[in-house]
Amino acid sequence: MTNNDILKKLRVALQLRDDQIVEILNLVDFRISKGEIGNFFRNEDHPKYVECQNQILRNFLNGLVIYLRGTKENPKNPKEVLAAVAASKKPLTDKPLVNNKIKTDKKYSKPTVKPVPKTKTTTPLTQKDIMGNVKFNNGKTKENN
Question: Could you tell me where the Low complexity compositional bias lies (predicted)?
């Protein structure tokens, strides 16, 4: 398992965004941009993929300890920190939720389809009427017996 895999798994498990990872690395005076962090999470065959070095993972883990536990002078409860992070998550949309569904505007809602009224046929259709113009793979028309 590579350092990139470890970083990805921690990011998913702790539900961290790139800006939060930058903040965690700043706690241990390690400066890195969001773009550089994004390169760690790319596929290995992507041209901008960068391998996460030991120094970056070490600083991230040290910063994560400070982020979750706090310092000796100012200790924190990790569960409270994670709960606060989860509560501060922004929804992916700015529209209000109604019954756990995104409320949509009327003009963008799905159009209603009116049923087509059924017409009465006076004579029943035969199979020859229905299949009369259909051609098959061999180019011959189907003849009814």
Answer: 110-124
Contacts of 16 (CB under 8 A, 6+ apart): 10, 24, 85
The tokens describing 71, both together, are 């310092």
Considering its fold, how many domains does the chain have in total?
1
Confirm whether 29 is domain-assigned: yes
Which residues are CB-contacts of 142 (< 8 A; sequence separation ≥ 6)? 131, 134, 136
Residue 34 covered by a domain: yes
pLDDT (tens digit per residue) in 80-117: 877 877 777 655 445 555 555 655 555 555 666 777 77
User: In angstroms, how far is CA 101 from the centroid of its own chain?
Assistant: 16
With beta carbons less than 8 A apart as the criterion, state whether 49 and 43 touch. Answer: yes
Identify whether the C-beta of residue 76 lies closer than 8 Å to the C-beta of residue 70.
yes
